Amino acid sequence: MKEKPLRLHKYIEEVRRINLGSRKTYQIRTFGCQMNENDSEKIAGVLEEMGYLAASDNEIPDFILFNTCCVRENAEQKVFGHLGVLKKQKEKKESLIIALCGCMMQQAGTLDKIKKSYRHADIVYGTNKSHLLPQYLYTLLTTGQKQYFAEPVDQEIIEGQPVKRESSIKAYVPIMYGCNNFCSYCVVPLVRGRERSRKKDDIINEINSLVAEGTKEVTLLGQNVNSYDSDGDFTELLYLIDRQCDIKRIRFMTSHPKDISSRLIQAIHDIDKVCNHLHLPLQSGSTKVLSEMNRKYDKDRYLAIISEAKQMVPEIGLSTDIIVGFPGETDDDFEDTLDVLEKCEFDFAYTFLYSKRRGTPAASRKDQITKEVKGERFEKLLEKQNSITLKKNLSFVGSTVKVLVEGASKTDKEILTGRDEANKIINFKGSPDLIGEIVNVKITSAKTWHLEGETNENI
Ligand code: SAH
Ligand code: SF4
C-alpha cells in the first residue's frame, strides 16, 4: 500500500480526535453503477478511519451520505425523494450530518437546487473528491459552515485510499476513470471527466493485497476498459494480472464494441482466470440510431463481434445494455434491436427507457419519442429477452458449471448462492464451509433469474 497523501492523514486524525470517546455512526446509500459502489467502499474506509462505525438499521446515524447517480432521470428523482425524507430525521436528531456526493452533484444546476430547497444538506461535493471528505467534515465540525462545492472534475488519480469492502470474496478494482466517448445520450463524460488509466503497478498491488486478504474474484472497472492505456493496453494488462496475481477469477466491465479487439477475445479464451463472460452494450440494433448515438459501430459490426466471441469461446456468457426510445427511433429501428436480440441470444440484458439528460446532444432533439411508445417497446423488448434468457438457462439443465460460492440464502441457511463464469446466479444445497470456494454444481432446474443445482464436489 502506498503512503497516503498528507492532507488525507491530517484531517482524518483531526476528525478522529473530535469523535474520540463518543460512539459515532454512519450510513452510505449508493445509487447507480459499480464505480459508485467502489467509491462508496472508499468513503466507508475513510469514515471508519475517522472513528465512525456502520449504523444499525434501527438508529438514526450521525452521518449519512448519498453517493448519487445521474445517468437516468429516475436515479436523480430517487435522491431528491430520499433527501426530502431526511429532513424529518434531522428534525429528530439535530446533530445529523447529511452529505451528498457523486455524479449528480457535478451537474450544472444541482447545487443551486440544493441551496434553494434542501438546505438541510451539510456537505456537497462531486466526483473524484472523496479524498477531501475528511477536510470538509473537519471544517463543518469546527466552524459550522456548510461545505458546498461544485467544481470541475478533478483529473487526478488518488491512490492508497483506505477501502472498506462489502464482500471478502469478490471486489471491484477500477483500472481507469472517466470517458472520452460522448455518446449523444450520455451524461457520464460530463460528470466524470476525461479518461485516465491507473498505473499497472498500482492495479497489480491492489489485487495482490486483496488476494492476501482472501479475495477470490476481482472485477476490473472502467467506462470503457478497452481503451485502458498505461504502458500497454487492456489485453496486456489481463495477461500481466494472470502472471503476477494469484487471483482465482477475473471479470471486467464495460467493453465498448468500437474498441474491442480479437486479441481481447483471445485473452478470454487463453486465460483460465478470466471468466467466460462478455458484457458488451449494444444500445440499439439500428445502424441509423447507432450513428446518431455516436457509438461508432453498426449493426453488422456488432453481430460480427458476437459471432467471433461465440466461435472463439463457445461457452461464453453474453450480456448487454439496451436503450429503448432514443429520439427519432422508428418501429423499423426498434425491429432491428429485436433482431439483434434474437441473433445474439444474450444471457442477460439491462434494458433502459431513454432518459433526457441535461447537456447532452440527444436531449435537445425535437423528435423525442412519446412515453406511451417507449413503454410499449420496452415491454416488448423485456418479453423477448426474458424468453431468450429462460431458454438459455434451460439449456444448462444437466450440465455442470463452476460456481464461486458467495454466501447462504437469507431465508434458508442450507441454500448456498453464487455465480458461474457466465455470471448466472446459481442456488444449491451445501455446507456453509463452501462459502468462498469454487465448486462444481450440476444444474437441475432453471428459472429466468436463477438456476438451481446440486454439488458433491469441491474443485
Ligand atoms: N460506460 C458504460 C456504462 C455507461 S452507463 C457503457 O458505455 O456501456 C450504463 C448504461 O446506462 C449505458 O450502457 C446505457 O445503456 C444506459 N444509459 C446511459 N445514458 C442513458 C440515458 N440517457 N437514457 C437511458 N439509458 C442510458
Ligand atoms: Fe456513456 Fe458512452 Fe461513455 Fe458509456 S461509453 S459512459 S455510454 S459516453
| Contiguous runs where pLDDT drops below 50 for at least 5 residues | none
Radius of gyration: 23 Å
- Structurally, the number of domains stands at 4
Q: Assess the beta-strand content as a share of residues.
A: 15-25%
What characterizes the major β-sheet?
Answer: 6 strands, parallel
CATH topology of the largest domain: Rossmann fold
Structural class: alpha/beta
> So how many helices?
13
CATH class of the largest domain: Alpha Beta
Straight-line N-to-C gap:
32 Å
In what order do the strands lie side by side in the largest sheet?
2-1-3-4-5-6
Give the CATH superfamily of the largest domain.
Methylthiotransferase, N-terminal domain
Shape, please? globular
Mean pLDDT, as a whole number? 95
Which architecture of the largest domain per CATH?
A: 3-Layer(aba) Sandwich
Any overview of this molecule?
There is one protein chain. By secondary structure, this protein is of the alpha/beta class. It folds into 4 domains: 6-148, Rossmann fold (3-Layer(aba) Sandwich); 165-275, Transcription Regulator spoIIAA (2-Layer Sandwich); 280-394, Transcription Regulator spoIIAA (2-Layer Sandwich), CATH 3.30.750.200; 400-458, Nucleic acid-binding proteins (OB fold (Dihydrolipoamide Acetyltransferase, E2P)). The protein is 36% helix and 21% strand. It has a 6-stranded parallel sheet, sandwiched between helices. Strands 15-16-17-19-18 form a 5-stranded mixed barrel. The protein starts with 5 loop residues before the first helix and ends with a strand. The relative contact order is 0.08. The structure holds S-adenosyl-L-homocysteine and iron/sulfur cluster. Iron/sulfur cluster is lined by residues 179, 181-183, 186, 188-189, 223-224, 256. Iron/sulfur cluster binds next to helix 6.
